[in-house]
Design brief:
four-stranded antiparallel sheet; 37% helix; seven-stranded mixed sheet; 427 residues; 14 helices
């Protein structure tokens, strides 16, 4: 984005023309001394929708009124509660209704899916993952490998960066898949890398993995609600995600899972539980498990209603906003933030290096910034000035202007505060 005029007035003009700007009023933004903070940490925890409290209260009222009968007589019966979200969730991740389910939480779902999709046999035992995946993924993958009696040091392969580079090249990922060949059982990569904000070429990765005879799955914690996804069309085997980041559903909120329709009626092994049993016969309490022929067949427990209720509020917002419009605004916001940082570098020798890809198609809402030579002090100064960003070792500030509730004025104000925190010079 060019900055012919970087002023508060121009930022407010962009906000006035923004078709999504009214959504900002649907969220509760933390305040310091009665003024809203600049909240750029929706990549860690999204803001609370204003309607969340009332939605939770309705379920509390039904619990008080009906007790156990709320499973069938609540305004949204608890027996089928998760089914309310199938269409909206499928729209967010580009799946079909029968391919998605809300259940458990992110890493729990990853483990349950790996039971089905990591099936090491013979020499095909290795898992390929991205460079520096989120630690929970590493722990899950290593423990699954060890569960099968194999050595994670031998079987868990992490992509390595080229010298002097911060993100992975598509050609290198695809070449590594082909190099591993018939030793590769599974490719498990984050749709968006949590550290750099890089969007990975999921469709190409799936095609290459399948060509090598391997399974392809994704952790979409930083992708769901951030970038448009087409999991069904891309032929993704499985995926999982959380709903508390870009999907604004509250701390520890329910996780999501996708299983491609080609696997739904297969004989894949799974860890079974009664909520995955055919709902038509579930209450017969038969001893033999009969899985539902949808992603719901991977459920093990009934829906955590009070955990899920806020997600219903969020999905209604996403349905109204639309992922295409959110994506367009996201690219504008991050482009504006990038231009401001570049201006600080050019005019004030700020020495701020954006390690997120410059190509807008290869990044989502997040920009990751190397604060070269400044240590954590710069982050601390921003925090003291009511700018909510986060810090990742060894020297990265992550900022995520989220299109659902952040504004161009937020980005403008961030640039001014950053300049003040830098002292307007390199020192």
């Amino acid at each position: 984005m060019q900055l012919p005029e970087n002023t508060l007035g121009s930022a407010r003009q962009w906000d006035a023309k923004d078709p999504l700007h009214a959504f900002r009023e649907q969220f509760l933004i933390p305040k310091v001394e009665q003024a809203p903070i600049i909240y750029f940490t929706g990549n860690s925890l999204g803001l609370q929708p204003r309607d969340a409290g009332a939605a939770v209260e309705r379920e509390m009222e039904d619990w008080a009124r009906f007790g156990v009968e709320g499973h069938f007589h609540a305004r949204h019966p608890w027996f089928s509660y998760h089914e309310r979200f199938s269409a909206g969730e499928a729209s967010v991740v580009g799946g079909r209704k029968e391919e998605v389910v809300l259940m458990n939480q992110l890493t729990s779902n990853l483990h349950f899916l790996l039971v089905s999709f990591y099936r090491p046999k013979g020499k095909r035992v290795k898992i390929l993952t991205e460079h520096r995946p989120f630690p929970s993924d590493t722990y899950a993958l290593a423990s699954q490998i060890a569960f099968h009696g194999l050595d994670p040091k031998e079987c868990l392969v992490e992509m390595q960066l080229r010298e002097g580079e911060h993100t992975l090249r598509t050609d290198d990922i695809l070449a590594k898949i082909q190099e591993l060949g018939d030793e590769l059982a599974l490719v498990l990569i984050g749709g968006v890398n949590y550290f750099t904000g890089q969007v990975f070429p999921m469709e190409a990765i799936v095609a290459s993995a399948h060509e090598a005879g391997a399974v392809a799955g994704f952790d979409l914690a930083h992708a769901a609600g951030n970038i448009p996804l087409q999991l069904h069309d891309w032929n993704v085997d499985f995926a999982c995600w959380c709903t508390y980041k870009y999907l604004n559903s509250g701390p520890g909120s329910v996780g999501g899972a996708f299983i491609h329709e080609k696997h739904l009626r297969s004989d894949l092994p799974r860890f079974a539980g009664w909520w995955g049993h055919d709902k038509q016969t579930r209450f017969r309490m038969d001893p033999e498990f009969s899985p539902m022929p949808t992603a719901e067949g991977w459920q093990v427990s009934n829906a955590p209603v009070l955990n899920m209720v806020v997600h219903g509020v969020s999905l209604a917002q996403f349905t109204q906003a639309g992922m295409d419009r959110l994506r367009a605004k996201s690219m504008q916001l991050t482009g504006y933030a990038e231009a401001i940082i570049n201006e600080l570098n050019e005019k004030h020798n700020a020495k701020l290096e954006i390690i997120t890809p410059k190509d807008p198609g290869q990044r989502g809402c997040q920009l990751s910034i190397f604060a070269q030579g400044r240590g954590k002090g710069l982050y601390d100064r921003l925090t003291e000035r009511a700018v909510s960003v986060d810090w990742r070792e060894p020297n990265v500030i992550r900022m995520a202007p989220v299109p659902m509730y952040n504004s161009f004025e937020d980005v403008f104000r961030f640039g001014g505060i950053m300049k003040e925190c830098l002292g307007g010079h390199s020192g």
